[in-house]
TrEMBL record:
This is Hydrogen peroxide-inducible genes activator. The keyword DNA-binding applies. It holds the Pfam family HTH_1. The keyword Metal-binding does not apply. Gene3D superfamilies: Periplasmic binding protein-like II, Winged helix-like DNA-binding domain superfamily/Winged helix DNA-binding domain. PANTHER family: HYDROGEN PEROXIDE-INDUCIBLE GENES ACTIVATOR, TRANSCRIPTIONAL DUAL REGULATOR HCAR-RELATED. Signal peptide: none annotated. Residues 4-61 form the HTH lysR-type domain. Belongs to the LysR transcriptional regulatory family. Keywords: Activator, DNA-binding, Transcription, Transcription regulation.
Length: 313
């Protein structure tokens, strides 16, 4: 197997992940026929088929399943050689692959990316927005350099750095403005609008309301795929929802809703950065964590102008 190329290994990994020639080709930035040819040449060099080709989906063969993790180890090791070169400099340079959860990305990224570009000229930033389990998987496989998620993630192979803590607020129809702020037990009895399963924010909101969906589900729950949809549903009078403070200015600017803080102890989450403990970029990523902290300052000012405190007894 002397003629296997690094490029072929990249293409194999892309096809194994996407399970589709067109999507894999788009991810690699090449044509579908070119990808197909490279995969065929790789299989000929290995001497065995790596993929089972169906009419609608591509699956790894049994040997392909054993082949894939070893290829990912090779790709990760090669990427880490590049990280070593970048780590020899005092600041972040070159490609930086950042993963961000959906309940943070739309609100933090505009400020953060501007600050990173200004402080680290020449930085080539690639952003991946998806749910925490996928981000952790891609981080461990070496496809991301760092991720911004809700802590803790409790993965032994990852370093966790807390960045900031933010409260959750109650969003209810505009006609409820001035009414007493309900506690968690009262919220549980309302029609509660939540993000769909898989979002960690959904689990955090249910935890505040003391809800175990399997044992004692709330009276009525509706799901949505984004915070924006949840707020618009509240505007339509369908129910109430919880959103993080950083989302208030963006998501409520075109909605006639009432936004109010809960009484203490308020529900909250801690947002942090995670990266592989073995990453040569750890010192530079620690520097980046300080940029993230500073980037939240402007957001907090917007939040304070958009929120109402609960009335005092």
């Amino acid at each position: 197997m002397k003629n296997i190329t690094f490029k072929q290994l990249r293409y194999f990994d892309a096809l194994a992940r996407h399970g589709h020639f067109r999507r894999a080709a788009e991810a690699c930035g090449i044509s579908q026929p070119a990808l197909s040819m490279q995969i065929k040449e790789l299989e000929e060099e290995v001497g065995i088929e790596l993929f089972e080709r169906g009419p609608r989906q591509i699956r790894l063969t049994g040997f392909g399943e054993e082949f894939a993790p070893r290829i990912r180890d090779i790709l990760r090791s090669v990427d880490e050689l590049g990280d070593l070169a970048r780590a020899s400099r005092d600041r972040l340079v070159g490609r930086l692959r950042i993963g961000v959860i959906p309940t943070v990305a739309p609100y933090l990224l505009p400020t953060l990316l501007g600050n990173l570009s200004r402080l680290h000229r020449g930085l080539d930033i690639h952003v991946r927005e998806t749910q925490t389990p996928r981000l952790i998987q891609e981080l461990e496989e070496g496809r991301l350099d760092t991720a911004i998620v809700a802590l803790p993630v409790s993965e032994p192979a990852l370093t966790e750095v807390p960045l900031f803590t933010e409260n959750f607020v109650l969003v209810r129809p505009g006609e409820d403005e001035g009414k007493p702020v309900p506690g968690p037990d009262a919220v549980r009895e309302m029609r509660l609008l939540l993000l769909e399963e898989g979002h960690c924010f959904r689990d955090q909101a249910l935890s505040f309301c003391n809800v175990d969906m399997r044992a004692t589900p709330p009276r009525d729950v509706l799901d949505a795929s984004s915070l924006s949809t949840l707020v618009q549903m509240v505007d339509a009078g369908i129910g109430v929802t919880l959103i993080p403070e950083m989302a208030v200015a963006v998501e409520t600017r075109s909605a006639s809703v009432s936004v109010v803080r809960f009484r203490d102890p308020q529900p909250a989450r801690t947002i942090g950065m995670v990266w592989r403990k073995t990453s040569p970029l750890a010192p530079q990523l620690m520097q980046m964590s300080e940029v993230v902290r500073r980037s939240t300052a402007a957001l907090r000012q917007q939040q304070e102008a958009s929120l109402h405190e609960p009335p005092q007894d």
